[in-house]
Amino acid sequence: MQILKHEPAYYETTAFKWRQRIGFGISDYACNLAYLLANTYLLFYYTNCAGLAASAVGFMFVVTKFIDAFTDYMVGAMIDHTDTKMGRYRPWMLGGAPVLAVGMVLLFSVPTGWSAGAKLAWAYITYVIFSFGYTLVNIPMAPIVSALSPSPTERTKIATTRTVFSNLGSLTSSLFVIPMVYYFAGSEDATGAALAAGYRNTNIVLGLMVIAIMCLCVFNTAEINPPSKAAEKSSILQDLGAVFKNKYYIMLLLLVFFLFLGYLGMYGAMQYYYNYIVCDQSSMPIALSLLTILAIPTMVLAAYLNGRGIHKVTLMQFGAVVDVIGYAVLFFTSNGTIATLSLALIGLGFGFRSSMFFSMMPDIYDYTEWQCGRNLGGTQNALSGFVNKLSSASASAIVSALLVWGAYDSEAMDAALKAGQNLAEAFPRTQTAINFAFGGLSLVSTVLAIVVMLPYDLDKRYPEIRADLNQRQAESK
């Protein structure tokens, strides 16, 4: 258990609370730099720089998730049985940062002179390394919120700060990744090895940033609310049995899958959309910026409204309805201006969704502890993290499959684009595939995300559950 350096009164001060909120929040800035690099630019890098087939890459994204299933669970289980002077969660976040940074660089360092089979093998191996690094850093990030404070209101503020920084990470990616790639590539017209070098060097810079940020996070937070019972030995079957008795957790897993399937499917198709439908990749950073910036005020508004008594699930569902409207418009348009405005609307809705999503997770993990008497936040976040990665892989695989169905040929389309041809007339099936990947997948998955959360009523029950856990914690001292 973490040894605290100050008297209990210190941890109730406003200065400490803000240090903790920001110290923890910046962790998701680092995570989102890595996460969106992989989900926004990697498929395009593989097909257009490394020369890999979209079908092979889509299959790779799915296969590697079965390896993730094992590593995610093992890390989560080990976290649940960790007890150190630094606490339960922070050592994992600190140790995982360099692994994640190395994975980011290797991911975008496919040797372009190798054979197709050797390049694909490199993609498999490095994607596993990247995913493992992300697991080490990210799995502790949801359950640690319970340890940072026992107060539901303070947890919402911590989670909101996290989501604000998460979006700032997205904004950094939106504004600077493409310009950095072109800078390191030497030209906006760079292709092949030069463009590949641009992606690699960009990731070296961002990987170093990830390490520095995670160090700042770990050394500016404290686990002041330990579990009601110390870590104890239990079998895998016992842990899984306890986890899946929690009906709210089942809803959470379904929500995670559908929430990220739509969002990441849109991100995965975005570069293709602005490149070959809007025919203006330079407007993509503006669209991404609106998507991320406009989420921030609604995150803050959601936290305020939750503090005024509006339930978390109500705010999340409202945001989802706003997103459905945005995705519906996105699905039925190929106009760049309308698409960008739709993304702005989606950003507003996603601000409500993401803020409340991360605030609800500790409540759901507490419900498991209340049910079974053991804190299994690591295991639960590992399983939800795996579902997140499975959703990410599914989004990439679906986008890849749509590109295959649409007979996507980057060289032919780039040549037609330079020649000034009308791509809608020259490649109608490819255009349809990209448009559906960009908007249609998100529309369907967001509707399903609304449906799976309709029975959720933990917000009403949580005050009683929290009071019981506080009593158990007091009795265990």
TrEMBL record:
GO term, biological process aspect, one: carbohydrate transport
Keywords: Membrane, Transmembrane, Transmembrane helix
Residues of the signal peptide: none
Stretches that traverse the bilayer: 52-71, 92-110, 122-144, 164-184, 204-222, 248-274, 286-306, 338-358, 433-456
Recorded GO CC terms: plasma membrane
Gene Ontology MF terms in the entry: symporter activity
CDD domains: MFS_MelB_like (cd17332)
Record-linked InterPro entries: MFS_2, MFS_trans_sf, Na/Gal_symport
Domain of life: Bacteria
Pfam families tied to this protein: MFS_2
PANTHER family per UniProt: MAJOR FACILITATOR SUPERFAMILY (MFS) PROFILE DOMAIN-CONTAINING PROTEIN (PTHR11328:SF24), MAJOR FACILITATOR SUPERFAMILY DOMAIN-CONTAINING PROTEIN (PTHR11328)
Protein name listed in UniProt: MFS transporter
Source organism of this protein record: Schaedlerella arabinosiphila
Lineage start: Bacteria, Bacillati, Bacillota, Clostridia, Lachnospirales
